[in-house]
Amino acid sequence: MITFETKIREQTVRLYADLPLKNAAGAIMRVLADVSRKTNIFNNKFTLNFGWGFFFLTQKSESDGEKFWVVETIDFNKNPAKDRTDNLTTALVVQNMQMEAVQVAKVKPENCTCKDTVLVLKEALSSNDVYMHRKEAAKNGDSGWYLGLLYDPDDESHVLADFESMPTYKLIAFCPDAMRVLQLPVGTVAVFNNKSLTALVDADDNTMKFTTDEERRRLGEKQRKEFEAEVAAARERAKAGQSDAQSSESAE
Q1: Is 147 found in the same domain as 70?
Q2: CA-CA distance, 124 to 110, in Å (whole number)?
Q3: Is it the case that residue 220 has pLDDT exceeding 70?
Q4: What is the reported pLDDT for 245?
Q5: Rounded to two decimals, what is the model's pTM?
Q6: Is residue 205 predicted with pLDDT exceeding 90?
Q7: What letter does residue 164 receive in the DSSP assignment?
Q8: Sign (positive/negative) of CA torsion 240, 246, 250, 252?
Q9: Does residue 217 lie in a domain region?
Q10: How many domains does the chain have?
Q11: What is the pLDDT of residues 74-83, one digit of tens each?
C-alpha cells in the first residue's frame, strides 16, 4: 500500500491507497489544509464531503507512541452506514474518474455523493445496453440520475415494482464506468455498452467529449511511470543523504 503524507497545522496526516493516485490524494490534502484554517479538523469527529466521497480523520499512534492522523472513508465492502476503511483506493479512483469527466467535457460539475440515490429499472441491471439520464432532483438526497434500458419495448407499461431506488455507490458493482458521469450536470445522457461508456450528450443533445478506455489506459501507465520515477529519485536522494552523513561521522 502507498502512503501519502503531509503536515497540516503541525499535525502529520497520512492517506493510504493501493495505487499511485497522487493527484486525487493531493486534492484531498489541500482541501483538508484549507478547511483547517477555518475550523478544528483534528478532533476525531470531523467529516469532509469532498465531491462524491466522505472522509474522516482518525488519530493513530506509532509503536514508539508518536501520534499521527489517518484519512478514512466509507467502507463500501462492509456496512456503508457505519463502517470505515483507511484504504482510500476506491474513493480516489472514483474521484479521479469524475474530475477527468468534468474537465474533458468542459462543464461545471453538479454535486452527487455516494449516499445520494439513483432510480434504477431493475431489468437494466442485467442488460448490456443501458443509459443514464440526469433530471432535476425530486428531493434532498436524490441525485436526479435514472438508469434504464437503451432499448426498452415495455417503456410505457412498467409498474412501480419494476423500479428501485439505490445509493449511487451500488453502481460500482454493476458498472464502474457509470461512476464517471455522476458529477455531470442535469440534462446529461450517458450510454453504456458492455459496461463501457460509449456516448455522452448534454441537455441540448450536443455531443460531449469523454476519454476512451484506451486513452485512460495510456494515461494510467504514464502516471504510474511518473510516480515510480519520483519514488526512485527520492530513494536516491535518501541514500545520498545517508552516505554524506556517514562520511561526516568518519571524518570526525
Answers
A1: no
A2: 24
A3: no
A4: 54
A5: 0.82
A6: yes
A7: E
A8: positive
A9: no
A10: 2
A11: 999 899 889 9
